[in-house]
Amino acid sequence: MKISTRGRYALRVMTDLAERSGGEYIPLKDIILRQGISQKYLEGIMTDLSKAGVVDAKHGKGGGYKLAKSPDSITVGDILRVTEGELSPVSCLDENARPCLRAAECRTLPMWTKLYAMINDFFNGYSLADLMQNGSATDNYVI
């Protein structure tokens, strides 16, 4: 599994918003200056995050973006699923996958299922609040 630039940028932007989560809308141009991301690329990311209900968007004067929820209630998993799609390691575990005709005799399915659970548990174990604390989640993973 490889997280794309889009996913990594979304995490940077969401952490930026979390660090400034005083209830005010943060202008896109301010985020662009701090994060060094092109406006066109960032607009696409923010549109997706807004549609997913992770950020609130306000257009016009005094507009910008702010978190839709508190930093401790938004997980890295929430953000990555918006930008990366499903985090499943194999297509047969995708949410809308057709039932696999070989699932009953598949010797590898239990392994993929366990990996999928580990990936989700790992990314859901980190909130934006954790990232604001230098990425120190409260999980017990040893790397």
Note down, in words, how this protein is organized:
With 143 residues, the protein is mostly helical. It has six helices and two strands, in the order αααββααα. The chain has a single domain, classed as Arc Repressor Mutant, subunit A, CATH 1.10.10. 46% of the residues lie in helices and 6% in strands. A two-stranded antiparallel ribbon has the order 1-2. Strand 1 and strand 2 form a beta hairpin. The radius of gyration is 17 Å and the shape is elongated.
Give me the secondary-structure category: mainly alpha
Number of helices: 6
Q: Would you identify the regions where 5 or more consecutive residues have pLDDT less than 50?
A: none
Question: How big a fraction of the residues is strand?
Answer: 5-15%
